[in-house]
Amino acid sequence: MTATTSTLGFAILAVLARADSTGYEIAGRMRHPIGRFWTAGHSQIHADLQRLRAAGLVEYVTAAGPGPQEKKVYSVTPEGLGALRDWVTEPPRPQPERDELVLKTYAAWLADPARLIEMFRTALRHHEERLAEYESTWAAVEEAPPAFGTSGFGNMAALRCGLTYERHRAEWCRWMIDQLLRAQSDGEHPA
Amino acid sequence: MTATTSTLGFAILAVLARADSTGYEIAGRMRHPIGRFWTAGHSQIHADLQRLRAAGLVEYVTAAGPGPQEKKVYSVTPEGLGALRDWVTEPPRPQPERDELVLKTYAAWLADPARLIEMFRTALRHHEERLAEYESTWAAVEEAPPAFGTSGFGNMAALRCGLTYERHRAEWCRWMIDQLLRAQSDGEHPA
DNA sequence: TCCTTCTATGTCAGAAATGACATAGTGGGC
DNA sequence: GCCCACTATGTCATTTCTGACATAGAAGGA
Hints:
The structure is a homodimer of 191-residue chains. The first copy, chain A, is mainly alpha-helical and 191 residues long. The first copy, chain A, contains 7 helices and 2 strands; from the N terminus they run H-H-H-E-E-H-H-H-H. In chain A, strands 1-2 form a two-stranded antiparallel ribbon. In chain A, helix 6 packs antiparallel against helix 7. The model of chain A has no long low-confidence stretch (mean pLDDT 94). The interface between A and B is large, with 75 and 75 residues. Chain A binds a DNA duplex (30 and 30 nucleotides) through residues 6, 8, 22-25, 39-44, 46-47, 65-72.
């Protein structure tokens, strides 16, 4: 009954539900802002669009394109919108998170503290930069909170997650650096 | 020069650096505790162990096994330990996070608030359960902080990340539920 | 003029990852 | 006595994902 579509398929539907787009434009949104929580290259997107079309969840109209092929502007069909709506409220199975920095941390006891401090400072800088970016966007959103039922609500909600995530991450990096500095000074002049 | 090994290969090395193990045991540790930040099925692990062995990063001794094949107890070679040490301090490229719940949130403006509240309450419950688990483990660790240079340090550092992550996540879920409740009551009796 | 970037489509090879299948002894509960 | 879970190895088909290759016009800067 329910169309079997990969998670990427729903990500594409979520983009198209906001505005009709070409595959190229979808790839752009996949980098930003969706790239913070889902990624896909354009080759994968083109393939998935064809699958979605075969399943009747999207359709397209053609126009003259810059390259040898015609440009295809995709839009969500009513069935596609229904499938997206159903999927949104289905609880995802608890995340199998994949986090390389934490994996490195798990093995950090084997490495040189000075180098680790350097690595975590780099990570901290990245997180602080993103946090600053999110906070300025947040300030703008807070002044005029978008109503539920408009796409702005989705933007705000995802942004809020990014905001608290970057805070947690920066906090943890600072804690790590602190721990490593202690380990270093203990190593220099042990009691 | 540096051996080209996938991230999973380093995850395996990180397990073996703590204790010599069979592939089966590695798979067990991959579920817990490593499953919180990296995952792999046993089929993938067996394949990777063979690659690591071909690269000279691990070796094994055989013993009688329960099945038709012999049991193989793997250990890290000096080259493997060196590769692991080098990898640990190499800064990972900023995370391409993949988070289905946030993706759903991005499209949440299309869905029914009541169902969304249900979904976020489920997610919140999961995060609170994990948080409680981490906090009790943390209390035990804090009493006797493991020294840097022992594997306990890696455990503690990864646990600390999980702890602040679950806090951020629970906080965000509560914020979402609050927003959705407001949206619901606004919908019921709009000014 | 030339070079790069942006627009826009796609294919293809290969790697990574999942889940099912296959085999087989031991130990414990009902 | 029977069935299940645990230990332990592996293969295989399929799906997913990445990165490179291929094509080509338009716009803008050096």
